[in-house]
Amino acid sequence: MTPLENLSASDFTSLTGQILTLQTAAGEEHPLELTAVTPLGSRHPGASRDPFSLTFRGPSGLRLPQSIYPFQFPGAGRLEFFITQTADSWFEAVFT
Fold first, then answer.
1. pTM, whole model, 2 decimals?
2. How far, CA to CA in Å, does 48 sit from each of 28, 41, 93?
3. Exposed/middle/buried for 61, CB within 10 Å: 0-12, 13-18, 19+?
């Protein structure tokens, strides 16, 4: 698994539009489409990367509590990060 601090927005750009699999602690799997990789300005002093966010769309009606979830990424393997639900079936992960 790649350490999150080594990842940047450019690591995800080529995955935009692809379906990734999120797995819950109960073992349920949910397909989420990576819809956007958004730069969030310049890095703070001492930070190792510029901040960015990932936006995902899931199946209609999908509700997930904000938490750390494992994702299966094509070509990148398994990554775990914190997501927040922003709207019905929409989720966001922010990397600072």
1. 0.90
2. 34, 13, 17
3. exposed
